[in-house]
Amino acid sequence: MRVLIVHNYYQQAGGEDSVVRNEAELLRANGHEVKLYAVSNHSIQGFASKIIATVNAIFSIPSYFRIRKEISEFRPDVVHVHNFFPLISPSVFYACRAKKVRSVFTLHNYRIVCPTATLYFDGEVTERSIDEGPWWTVARRVYRNSLIGTFSIAASVSLHRRLGTWKKVDQFIALTEFAKSLFSRAGIPSSKIRVKSNFSHLEIEEFPEQGVRDGYLFVGRLTEDKGIHVLLEAARSADVTVTVIGDGPLSDIVSANKHINFLGKRDSSIIRSEMRKAKALIVPSLWYEGFPMVIAEAYSQGLPVFASDIGALSELIEPEVTGELFSPGSPDELAALLISHKNSEHRIARMSSGARSRYLDFYSPEVSLRTLLSAYKSEQPL
What we know:
This protein is an alpha/beta fold. The chain is built from 16 helices and 14 strands. The protein is about 45% helix and about 15% strand. β10 (about 240-245), α10 and β11 form a beta-alpha-beta unit.
C-alpha cells in the first residue's frame, strides 16, 4: 500500500512521535511505501506567528491546499493522520474527502472533545466537555492558562462537531476500549472506531533469561499528573529504592529524594536494561493515560506493571497476572504493594511470564501490523 502519514510535531517530543516513527518503520519493513508529511511547532516563533497559529488551529486553509497537493503527487491509498494540532487543523480531512482518498485518524488524546486534551485539569479528572461541551474551559483557561488559546480550541471543538467534520473521517483508531467508550459518548459512532494498541519493537529472541529481579522502576515525565508525589511518598513508606528515568518540572524534587536512584533522561537501551533488572514498573498516573508506550515496552521485557486503577490503565493491567492495580492518588496502597512484593520472587516470576505473554498476544509488531492494515483496508463509503 501507499500510505501518507500526516503529523504535527509538538515542541517537546512525546509518545505520539514514537508511534509515528514506529508505525512508519513497521510499514516500510513489510513492503509498503510510506511518505511522511510533517510540520513542527518549532516554526511558531514570535507574537505574529502565534496569532496565525491560533486562527489556523480552527481551520487552516494553507494546510488544506498543501495536503491536497501531497495527495495529488504521492497518490496514496490511505492518509493516516496522527496529530493535526495546531498547524494542520481538521482541514486535512476535508482535503482527503475532496481528493476521494481514505482517511484514518489515530486518537492519541482527547483534543477533539476537550481543550484540555487530557480530560485532566486543576488536579482532577473531568469529563464535563463530553457531557456539556467545551465552553466551560474558556473561563478556566485550561490551555496554557491562555484565554485566547483556550477559546480557539473550544471554538474548534464546537465548530467541527456542528459541521460534522468527524463524519469525513473514514476510520478512527482508539488506543484502548476505554478511550473508545469515551469518544463514543462524545458522538463518534463506535462502529467507526477500531481499537489498536501501541506496540514494542523488541524481537522475541531478545527476551532476557528469567532471573531474580530487584528494585522498582519509573519511566516518564516528572509532572504532577504522572503521580510523582504518590511515588515518592510510597517509596518512603515502604522503604524501597525506585530507579527513575525521565525529566520534567519535578526533576529537582525527585533527584533530591533519598529513596530515588535518579538517572535522568536516558535512551532506549538504558531503559530496556533497567527493565530487565526491576521487579516492576510503577505507573502512578492521576489522569486518563492514552496508552503509555512504556507499558508495552515493559511487557516486552517481561516486566510486571503496578499502576493506578484509573481509565485505560485498569484495562491494560490484569492483577496478579501482568501486574497490580492500586487506587489512584493513594501512596498507602502503593506502599503496601511494594512491601508485599519485597520477598515474593515466585509471584514476580509468575507476573513476569504473564506480562511476556500479553506482549506476544497484543503488543508485538506483528499484531499491530495486522490491525493497522485492517484499519487501512476496512470498507467504509467515501
